Amino acid sequence: MKIKKKDIEYVANLSRIELSEIEKETFVHQLNDILSYIEKLNRLNTETVKPMSCAIDVTNIFREDIVEPSISLEDTQLNAPAIKGVFFKVPKVIE
Amino acid sequence: MEYEVVVGLETHAELATVTKLFCGCSTKFGIEPNTQVCPVCLGMPGVLPVMNKKAFDYALKAAIALNCKIDEFTNFDRKSYYYPDLPKNYQISQNYYNLGADGYMDIHVNGLVSRIRIHNVHLEEEAGKLIHPEEVGADYSLVDFNRAGVPLLEIVSYPDMRNVDEVESYMQTLKKILLYTEVSDCKMQEGSLRFEASISLRKKGSEKLGNRVEIKNLNSMKSVLRALEYETKRQTDSLGRGETIDRETRLWDEVNEKSARMRSKEEAQDYRYFPEPDLLPVLVDRKWIAEIKETIPELPLAKKQRFMEVFKLSDYDTSLLVEEKVLADLFEDCIKILDRPKVFCNWIANDLLREVNEKKLDIHQLPVRPKQLAALVEMIEKGTISSTIAKEVFSEMILTGNDPQVIVEEKKLTQINDEGFIGAVIAKIISSNPSAIEDYKKGKKNALVFLVGQVMKETKGKANPKMVNELLQKKID
Ligand SMILES: [Zn+2]
């Protein structure tokens, strides 16, 4: 798989990141380098290997449905770029 | 050209847990905004979600009740998209594995049973709530994250519905199943139960599905049906003009009763699903499934059919009885005390529901016990009170939860069966209504009804009506 400039533009748009032309070029090279490195794995035969999403062999970890204290409104809003009263304030959402 | 309507529904139901899906924050509704949040549900860096066992059990219960196949292995995935109500910029949901798949639900439409297939049932987290300020020209929106992370069940049907009657029955039946299994409170006005519809039209007899249009922003079952009627007409008209239907998402405008294309959806969605690395897979063994099965009560449709068969009740009466599990339970408990199915059915389906509607009572908080309702019926049968008085007693029972015997005694409502007393009242009524007597003698049978009414009025409804009738007739014939 070869990453092209339009792939970089596509994922940048999905991630809401603005990139300069120079950055796009840089990322085309870097991502292609990463992918060709990872491609080494293709040399292995994985036909009988099940897909794995978790590196440790542990399953069924749960918590009980018991209420724990939430944090204070002050702490909640501490990192917020904009607030209005008890709310977080964001640019107008259309629809 | 005749078209066939093809509808599928996506249903979201908030699960009735007291805490969120991945943290211990409360799920209570209507609390001050942003006070039921923590680093986990605010999506702070470095936090780790831990699955709520009850939420998983509830999801499993719903999937089993909807006859889904449960895979032994299940896992969760990240669905990435940017929206201000989604603090992590991804939603933990299920994509590569679903908790339940290939199920079905039977629905009743005009006395016939249709089977609607369920594509899948899966578990995910709720988003927060966006508030749009009412002030004109406001250039901002507000976010409340109290709802973010509340466990949400998504139920996806196959496009198996062919008309609005089926859609309505599907929504009602599904709601009843979720209520009977107690996995969700299904309060549509609080958003705990929401529907999204997809609809396409195809030529009658054709197998090929047309382009489907998704409709969002449907706030009630009524808006689902309205929106589908609108969309059917819009698509029929478009096709009639030789136009093609675009695959798109439309927003329903409840006030103006029309739908409009959703702008943000013009660019194709790419959620880039990948397995959630912060959660561990879940293995569901047979023992677990069997344990959950044990907790599923008899479901409404099965209950309705049993009531019709065993108690010989009508389709209409039984549908009222099974509407709420508490009513069906009350009915069955009464029958265990006194075997009068039809009588109790009438009390519950007619009188009780009327009182509940008139007095705006909460059906889950009614103080009346099966033993009391049975006692009331016995008092009528024994002639202690008339059926008219019984209704008066009942409307007090349903408010206070007092025993009918106590109410009758306190209000001195016992039926008068004393022939001498009734005879005296009749004599009085006859002498003060000579014209009615004359009418009766001329052959107007209605006059008798009038006279009986007068006697009942005079005795405040307490005279034994049968006795009044007989004595009166004897006297004037
Ligand atoms: Zn939380």
UniProtKB/TrEMBL annotation, chain A:
Instruction: Give the EC number.
Output: 6.3.5.-
Alphabetized InterPro entries for the sequence: Asp/Glu-ADT_sf_sub_c, GatC
| Reactions the enzyme catalyzes | L-glutamyl-tRNA(Gln) + L-glutamine + ATP + H2O = L-glutaminyl-tRNA(Gln) + L-glutamate + ADP + phosphate + H(+); L-aspartyl-tRNA(Asn) + L-glutamine + ATP + H2O = L-asparaginyl-tRNA(Asn) + L-glutamate + ADP + phosphate + 2 H(+)
| Keyword annotations from UniProtKB, A to Z | ATP-binding, Ligase, Nucleotide-binding, Protein biosynthesis
Q: Is the keyword DNA-binding in the record? A: no
Q: Name one GO molecular function term.
A: glutaminyl-tRNA synthase (glutamine-hydrolyzing) activity
Superkingdom of the source?
A: Bacteria
The UniProt entry's GO biological process terms, in alphabetical order, are:
glutaminyl-tRNAGln biosynthesis via transamidation; regulation of translational fidelity; translation
Q: What class of enzyme is it?
A: ligase
Does Oxidoreductase appear among the keywords?
no
Q: How does it assemble?
A: Heterotrimer of A, B and C subunits.
Write out the function statement from the record.
Answer: Allows the formation of correctly charged Asn-tRNA(Asn) or Gln-tRNA(Gln) through the transamidation of misacylated Asp-tRNA(Asn) or Glu-tRNA(Gln) in organisms which lack either or both of asparaginyl-tRNA or glutaminyl-tRNA synthetases. The reaction takes place in the presence of glutamine and ATP through an activated phospho-Asp-tRNA(Asn) or phospho-Glu-tRNA(Gln).
Q: Which family does it belong to?
A: Belongs to the GatC family.
The protein's matches in PANTHER family, at most eight in alphabetical order, are given as:
GLUTAMYL-TRNA(GLN) AMIDOTRANSFERASE SUBUNIT C, MITOCHONDRIAL (PTHR15004)
Q: What is this protein called?
A: Aspartyl/glutamyl-tRNA(Asn/Gln) amidotransferase subunit C
The primary gene name is gatC
TrEMBL record, chain B:
| Record flagged with keyword Transmembrane helix | no
Q: Which Pfam family name is an example for this entry?
A: GatB_N
GO BP annotations of the record are:
glutaminyl-tRNAGln biosynthesis via transamidation; translation
PROSITE patterns referenced in this protein's UniProt entry, alphabetically: GATB
**Which keywords are on file for this protein?**
ATP-binding, Ligase, Nucleotide-binding, Protein biosynthesis
Q: Which GO terms describe its molecular function?
A: asparaginyl-tRNA synthase (glutamine-hydrolyzing) activity; ATP binding; glutaminyl-tRNA synthase (glutamine-hydrolyzing) activity
Q: What does this protein do?
A: Allows the formation of correctly charged Asn-tRNA(Asn) or Gln-tRNA(Gln) through the transamidation of misacylated Asp-tRNA(Asn) or Glu-tRNA(Gln) in organisms which lack either or both of asparaginyl-tRNA or glutaminyl-tRNA synthetases. The reaction takes place in the presence of glutamine and ATP through an activated phospho-Asp-tRNA(Asn) or phospho-Glu-tRNA(Gln).
Similarity comment: Belongs to the GatB/GatE family. GatB subfamily.
- Its protein name is Aspartyl/glutamyl-tRNA(Asn/Gln) amidotransferase subunit B
Q: Which organism is it from?
A: Candidatus Brocadia sapporoensis
